[in-house]
Amino acid sequence: MDENMEKILYSEADIQAATKRLGEELTRDFDGKHPIVVCILKGAIHFMSDVIRNMDTYIEIGFMDVSSYGDGFESSGKVKIVQDLDMDVAGRNILIIEDIIDTGRTMRALVDIFKERNAESVKICTLLDKAERREVEVKADYVGFEVPNEFVVGYGLDYFNYYRNLPYIGVVKPEVYKNN
């Protein structure tokens, strides 16, 4: 898989430093609030696991599988809930953990869903923020890294469900995905 990378943007050490920093920030901000940490599957599973190991406060964990990509690498613009959260969020503090925010459509839809379900608060923590691709208004409250408009994989991020297990975040060589 390494041979398909044009470059490595963030090493395993970079990522671990970011998850430690974020976990400490989240501990301060959520201490005593008992948030529901909502992991957006499948991409955010590694990130969520590392962040919450660095949180020293009571949390509950939930999972949602949400898609706006289908089988490609360009957002379809339509957000589909594949697996919904299985707990009541009314009156609760929600912390959404996402791998990457680019167009913002998925995250905007999730925030709106939790507000409609009467969550007390909704905060967003993302590993990567690709702000230059933003199409709708959404801002993460906690960001691991700002990322350029390049096709990135690794540490949960995928291309056709491959590369999620890389310990780093890399930019895929264009020839890998141009023919698909």
TrEMBL record:
EC number of this enzyme: 2.4.2.8
Annotated GO CC locations: cytosol
GO biological process, alphabetically ordered? GMP salvage; guanine salvage; hypoxanthine metabolic process; IMP salvage; purine ribonucleoside salvage
Nucleotide-binding as UniProt keyword: yes
Q: Which reaction does it catalyse?
A: IMP + diphosphate = hypoxanthine + 5-phospho-alpha-D-ribose 1-diphosphate; GMP + diphosphate = guanine + 5-phospho-alpha-D-ribose 1-diphosphate
Name its cellular compartments. Answer: Cytoplasm
Q: Looking at the record's lineage, which domain of life comes first? A: Bacteria
Looking at the record, the residues that make up the Phosphoribosyltransferase domain are 15-159
Question: What are the protein's GO molecular function terms?
Answer: guanine phosphoribosyltransferase activity; hypoxanthine phosphoribosyltransferase activity; magnesium ion binding; nucleotide binding
Do you know which InterPro entries this protein is assigned to?
A: HGPRT, Hxn_phspho_trans, PRTase-like, PRTase_dom
Q: In which pathway does it act?
A: Purine metabolism; IMP biosynthesis via salvage pathway; IMP from hypoxanthine: step 1/1; Purine metabolism; GMP biosynthesis via salvage pathway; GMP from guanine: step 1/1
| The protein's required cofactors | Mg(2+)
Entry keyword set: Cytoplasm, Glycosyltransferase, Magnesium, Metal-binding, Nucleotide-binding, Purine salvage, Transferase
User: Which CDD domains does the record associate with it?
Assistant: PRTases_typeI (cd06223)
The record's similarity note reads:
Belongs to the purine/pyrimidine phosphoribosyltransferase family.
User: What is the role of this chain?
Assistant: Purine salvage pathway enzyme that catalyzes the transfer of the ribosyl-5-phosphate group from 5-phospho-alpha-D-ribose 1-diphosphate (PRPP) to the N9 position of the 6-oxopurines hypoxanthine and guanine to form the corresponding ribonucleotides IMP (inosine 5'-monophosphate) and GMP (guanosine 5'-monophosphate), with the release of PPi.
Would you tell me the protein name for this molecule? Hypoxanthine phosphoribosyltransferase
Its source organism is Ligilactobacillus ceti DSM 22408
